[in-house]
Design brief:
globular; 182 residues
Amino acid sequence: MKFVVQAAMGLSLVFAAPAFAAPAAASAPAAQAAASGPAHVKAVQDLLGAMQVEKVLKGVAARSRYANDAQRQAVYAKIDRTPPAEVYQRLAPQVAPFISADTATEMTRFYNTPYGKQVIHRKYNGSSQIMMPGMTAAVPPEEKKEHKRAAYVQASKELAAAEPMIDREAFKLLQKIDKEKR
């Protein structure tokens, strides 16, 4: 029964796709045109470096399914042999259409501050925290200061919206790295 429902939903999506393709196709050239400049790609590359996006590759590899543990370890070894600068360089052109140059510049500035570096460290190395009902998390003064800046607020929202695309492009890059002879 589950297969029949999935097949029916899949067919409905196939036949409904042309109706939804026109608006998406119309916005794609605008996004590509905005990302065509080398300065924009460089700004996104700097942002990926500040975000330490090579660690996203390791997270994607950890969430991926492999036939056995040896295959998983081989992928991790290839990721470790890939220099972080190469990851930023290869990922930036694919991610640039989803992140504006202003957002890349603002978030790079934020992640290079001492507080931004703490945020990145907590993102990749932080442990889970227990929150009791009724408790609120203490907001550091640095974060309060950043939340008052309109440029940061807008850039943060845009980057949060682009994170699924960054993960998707990281997965594609991981597949390419896995196929390469290293």
